[in-house]
Structure formats: structure tokens, C-alpha cells
Design brief:
This protein is of the alpha+beta class. Helices cover about 30% and strands about 30% of the residues. It binds zinc ion (ZN).
Length: about 160
């Protein structure tokens, strides 16, 4: 088994929605980003890459590469999963925390969970999404941006003891 952690932050900017975990959430602002600025999937990709010992998202999808400009982060995640599958890793589970004062993600949580489960090729029950504010403290508390943290556990295909 191998464990990985990832964290990502994006500032709010002009726009009318925020993409979180591949789900577009209507909001009075968007995010400033080279790609679609999906904090959840960026944190998740870093956790996956970290667990596999494959570096980080910036190495694989550099901001300087126009190929990833405005990219759908689901494509980045699929690319990362292909790297892991080539090394015979599978995801045991993923646990994410979204840190934001707004938008509230409560009613989008199940859609986000399903979205991530599909991207990782695992069951919904192997994905957990939590949301929290920072009690008005810091840049998140001032509603200047949002952040996400992800933890994943990988196992080598064929080495799993149960289910
Ligand atoms: Zn990001």
C-alpha cells in the first residue's frame, strides 16, 4: 500500500461558476487558473502522483504548456490514472476536504463523489468528500479563494487481500 497527499489553492476571479471535482457549481465569481482551476481534482492528482512517487501536477502539466490552457481537469486526472495503471496501481480510497466560505457545496457533494469515483474507476463508497469553512480566518475566510486537500491510498493490482 502507498499513501499520497495533495493540496491546491485558487484565487477567485471574474466568472459565474467554479468547477469542483468536475462539477460546475454556479457562483458569483470564477477562479484564476491556467486550467479550469478545479482545486479538488488538482489536489487529487497531486495525491495520486505523490502516492505513486511520480512527482507533482506541475511537472506533468506545466503552466507554460499551452496544451493545458483552460484544460478540463478531468482530462488531467485521466492522464494521471493512465500513468498509475501502467504501473499496476489501483486506488483503494480517496478522501477530500474542500475549504471554502462559498460557494456551499453541500447539495453538490454526491455529484462530486460520483464524478471522482468514475475518474478513479472505483465505487462511490471508496470516495469521501468533506467541506469546511475556516471560521472567517485567512484568505479563505475573507472569501478571496478556495482550497482543497486530498489523501489517497493505492495498492498494487493483484495484491489486494479483500474486495
Ligand atoms: Zn490548481
Amino acid at each position: 500500500m502507498r499513501i499520497g497527499i495533495g493540496i491546491d489553492v485558487h484565487a477567485f476571479g471574474p466568472g459565474d461558476s467554479v468547477v469542483i471535482a468536475g462539477v460546475r457549481v454556479p457562483y458569483a465569481r470564477g477562479v484564476v487558473a491556467h486550467s479550469d482551476g478545479d482545486v479538488a481534482l488538482h489536489a487529487l492528482c497531486d495525491a495520486l502522483l505523490g502516492a505513486a512517487g511520480l512527482g507533482d501536477i506541475g511537472m506533468h502539466f506545466p503552466d507554460s504548456d499551452p496544451k493545458w490552457k483552460g484544460a478540463d481537469s478531468r482530462e488531467l486526472t485521466r492522464h494521471v490514472m493512465a500513468l498509475l495503471r501502467a504501473r499496476h496501481y489501483r486506488v483503494a480510497n480517496a478522501d477530500l476536504t474542500i475549504l471554502a466560505e462559498a460557494p456551499r457545496i453541500g447539495r453538490h457533494r454526491e455529484a462530486m463523489r460520483r464524478s471522482i469515483a468514475q475518474l478513479l474507476g472505483i465505487g462511490d463508497d471508496q470516495v469521501n468528500i468533506k467541506a469546511t469553512t475556516t471560521e472567517g480566518l485567512g484568505f479563505i475566510g475573507r472569501n478571496e479563494g478556495l482550497a482543497a486537500q486530498a489523501v489517497v491510498l493505492l495498492h498494487a493490482a493483484g495484491s489486494e487481500a479483500s474486495g
